[in-house]
Design brief:
Layout (H helix, E strand, L loop, with lengths): L1 H54 L3 H15 L2 H7 L4 E6 L2 E6 L2 H10 L1 H11 L5 E9 L4 E6 L50 H12 L9 E4 L6 H15 L5 E5 H13 L3 H9 L3 E5 L8 H16 L3 E6 L11 H7 L3 E4 L5 H15 L5 H10 L4 H18 L5 H14 L6 H11 L14 H17 L4 H7 L5 H17 L1 H15 L1
Parallel strand pairs: 2-3, 5-8, 5-9, 6-7, 7-8
Antiparallel strand pairs: 1-2, 3-4
Helix pairs in contact: 2-5, 6-7, 8-9, 12-13, 12-14, 13-15, 14-15, 16-17, 17-19, 18-19, 19-20
Length: 519
């Protein structure tokens, strides 16, 4: 009995061992099966990723295709200058990154050719691709910074409204938040550097900006030669007023655009709407008012706007290339009103101010220019701020294109080229000065009705040279020289031309006067 039980127990144990072994084999096979499925899935995923990578062109191939497209769009010189130096860096997560040599290079691309770049990238790679710049800021250490396209911290793009050259809608009183003041915040008091040539104007401008219409500087009339900062100051005053007085309706407009708007209003029979718009401003800033010379109807309209705003204590800021007393061709009653407030001259910057302007521009663009080069530029480019900035841009372009450091030799070459291509602007006023000086006459005599032979001849020569060396019409020339009509100017030009053809001595005199004009 005991033996039988022992046999049964042994059998049961063997049976349990076999069952456990079978169960273990089953679980092991199941694990192997699941692991095999997982490994197959991973292998397939890797193969898909590798296949996609193999099928997707690398960033260098993509950029080569972009260059092929761009080459057909832009001129060859532009292509070689602004696109060949670009280095493709990566294309990841729908972001295409390119490296450009400098901040200046980046700003120029953004201003001139960003649309070409974007359209080409969309065409080659596909829509949704973001363009990103990497800018080399330090060539010695290899330091770089990244900027997305159209996100420049320096270059400010001025947007002109679609209907900027049209008269406003009928009886639409401009709300400050809705009115586009046409101001460029890039031009402000922070980067308008002070010197002896502009101290008075700057102080007056800041006073006007603080209390528009409540100072004795109304109107504030700023005059000076081209390129000395008149427009910059206009924008600075307007921007500061908007900051201090957001409720004020401020408008910056050039005299040329004002005239275009007025002409458009006449054509559409909406001059009342035009007047209503301008007479409801709180601050009117008009640039280059000398462009109204000879435009009697435009002057008359502006006269009424001026009177209305001034009587209501609204602020007027005006600029011109001449002082009010020298604006020949401007209505006397308007000239009188232009002198009511402060008339301040903005003259050419002195050496120290030119150095300040250059240093600021260099720091802003993130480039390194030796002190001796900056000093040389400041000493030799003396006419105006615009010339200073133009020479600096030319220097940076030569440096980028030719891959060379900016030194004194390069500066001398660039400035030499700028001097050679510089063209002198000749005005009717300048011609009158030189003709009267040549014949030893008082300039005011040309404005009289005198029929003396020498005065008539000097007047006719002035008219002839004015037509030859300026873009002014016969009517405008006549109004500015003795208040004559266009027929008188036409006759004067024919008379002088005939004399030049037949009289050798007279021709020599004209040539001598012309040589003085070109000096």
């Amino acid at each position: 009995m005991n033996n039988c039980c022992k046999v049964n127990t042994q059998f049961d144990n063997r049976l349990n061992i076999n069952q456990k072994s079978e169960l273990f084999k089953h679980k092991r096979n199941r694990c192997f099966f699941i692991l095999n499925i997982f490994l197959n899935f991973v292998v397939c995923k890797i193969e898909v990723i590798v296949l996609r990578k193999m099928m997707q062109p690398d960033y260098q191939t993509l950029w080569s295709k972009c260059l092929s497209v761009i080459k057909d769009i832009v001129p060859e010189a532009v292509f070689n200058t602004w696109f060949v130096p670009i280095i493709p860096l990566s294309y990841e997560e729908n972001k295409f990154t390119i490296q450009v040599p400098s901040q200046f290079f980046y700003e120029y691309l953004e201003e001139k050719y960003v649309n070409v770049l974007k359209v080409t990238i969309y065409r080659v790679i596909g829509k949704g691709t973001a363009l990103n710049y990497r800018i080399m800021v330090d060539k010695t250490t290899g330091g770089t910074i990244d900027y997305p396209a159209e996100n420049s911290p320096i270059a400010v793009k001025k947007v002109i409204p679609k209907d900027a050259n049209k008269a406003p809608e009928p009886f639409a009183r401009p709300v400050p938040q809705d009115l586009d003041s046409q101001l460029n915040p890039k031009y402000n008091f922070e980067n308008f550097f002070e010197g002896p040539s502009n101290r008075l104007v700057r102080i007056a401008g800041e006073a006007v900006a603080k209390n528009p219409g409540k100072t004795t500087f109304n109107p504030l009339f700023i005059f000076g030669p081209s390129g000395v900062g008149k427009t910059h100051l206009c924008h600075a005053i307007g921007t500061r007023i908007r900051e201090f007085h957001p409720e004020k309706r401020v408008l910056y407009v050039s005299a040329h655009l004002f005239r275009v708007q007025y002409t458009d209003a006449i054509r559409k029979n909406s001059t009342n709407d035009f007047l209503y718009f301008y007479q409801n401003l709180d601050v009117l800033i008009m640039d280059d008012i000398h462009e109204m010379l000879g435009m009697d109807k435009t002057q008359n309209t502006f006269f009424h706007i001026f009177n209305h705003l001034h009587q209501l204590g609204k602020q007027l800021v005006l600029t011109s290339d001449k002082a009010p007393v020298d604006l020949q061709g401007m209505e006397e009653r308007l000239v009188t009103r232009l002198k009511w407030g402060l008339t301040a001259e903005l003259s050419r910057p002195d050496l120290e101010l030119r150095k300040k302007i250059l240093k600021n521009k260099v720091d802003q663009d993130g480039v390194v220019i030796p002190e001796d080069v900056l000093g040389y530029i400041a000493e030799h480019v003396t006419e105006n701020v615009r010339d200073l900035e133009g020479v600096l841009v030319s220097l940076m372009a030569h440096s980028v294109i030719n891959n060379r450091e900016i030194d004194l030799a390069l500066a001398k070459r660039v400035i030499g080229q700028a001097v050679r291509v510089e063209q002198k602007q000749i005005s009717i006023q300048m011609i009158q000065d030189i003709v009267c000086k040549y014949f030893n006459l008082e300039q005011s005599i040309l404005q009289t009705k005198s029929r003396k032979r020498e005065i008539v001849q000097a007047r006719q020569i002035t008219m002839y040279l004015s037509k030859k060396y300026t873009d002014c019409s016969f009517s405008l020339i006549g109004k500015m020289i003795g208040k004559k009509d266009h027929a008188t100017v036409l006759h004067a030009c024919k008379t002088i031309k005939d004399q030049i053809d037949i009289n050798k001595s007279f021709r020599s005199s004209i040539e001598e006067i012309e040589s003085q004009l070109r000096v």
